[in-house]
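Notebook entry, structure prediction.
Reason for the run: the old model in the group folder had no record of what sequence produced it. Starting over properly, with the input documented here first.
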Amino acid sequence: MHTIFPVDRFSALDTPFYYYDFDLLRATLADLCDAMPADGNFRMHYAVKANANPDVLRVMSAAGLGADCVSGAEIMRAADCGFSPENIVFAGVGKTDREINIGLDCGISCFNVESEPELEVISSLAASRGVKAGVALRVNPEVGAHTHANITTGMAENKFGIAMNNLDKVVDMALSLPAVELKGLHFHIGSQILDMTDFQALCNRVNELQERLENRGLILPHINVGGGLGIDYRNPDGNPIPDFKTYFDTYRHHLRLRPGQTLHFELGRAIVGQCGSLVSRVTYVKQGVRKQFVILDAGMTDLIRPALYQAYHKIENISAETARPTYPYDVVGPVCESSDVFGKAVDLPLTRRGDFIALRSAGAYGEIMASGYNCRPLPEAITSDSLRRDDDLESMTECRSL
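New structure, fully documented this time:
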């Protein structure tokens, strides 16, 4: 299955906008659920930070996923979109008192704690409410990941997590605090990981730490290994759904769970990345001294990943007939920054003013990271479901007029 763009319907829409193919999203979720072991020991929490569009979240909650949140506002959004509080976890290195109180008042399952001061604050706030907060300790496992330096999270120089040599001390603190319940350990080594040996290395580290705790007579109810599974940005139609089976098999074969333990995951990009595209119109085709520029009405304010990470997104002219000759273009946006570039020397069919351009694989960290820089409005979101509903309403109107 791959995305088919209803270009004939786009002409009536203002650009730029995000287009979400919910048929692909549901197929991805079905494949994800099929790949998970049938014994129920594996639990999935969708990483809301990847895409918090309410329509997307409602599809996730309807599929039975939990939610991994990194702010109080994400917790409220997730609850509003149908996620059960007992399936919501709250991560983040700088949780404020207000955000912690939101989690406590909502009755979420677990806070993924990243430091001793945070643990003390959660305990104090929970005690003042007369409740007990479930916590998991996020450990920095010092496991590297083959990904961009800005999205690695599991090394000693990263700001996240508790150092391994402090784990016993923080465990003792958690066990001594009356208003917290120590439920597990939490890990996350980075994003856009395609090399399964990185996850194997994480499994080995978790096994070591589990043995260390077991030697103390302590077996925690759950282990949370975060997310990180990547997608194929260069061939979104050839590989629209990640290899979830190999991903889960890596943990099934290399991680030694104790009887009764559950293993929790927090995938985001792998679920939503391929279902979304940023759709833009060509404003101008400009001939430079040595190159041609395709200038879009979408810019880095709408999709910042290329400017921020030098990230690649496949660029397609979805208006072009196959008979058009192909030329190299620099595809750029209108923002007054030299970094507002989506791709250089991109081979596209002869491109004209008004053509629709799709920047693919933008379902994760696209719409959610958009900004109002240059006073530009945030992009709208269109779903394949909403277009179908519009078609149905048009058909009903035509029938009534007859």
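Summary: The first strand starts at residue 17 and ends at 20.
The old model has been moved to the deprecated folder.
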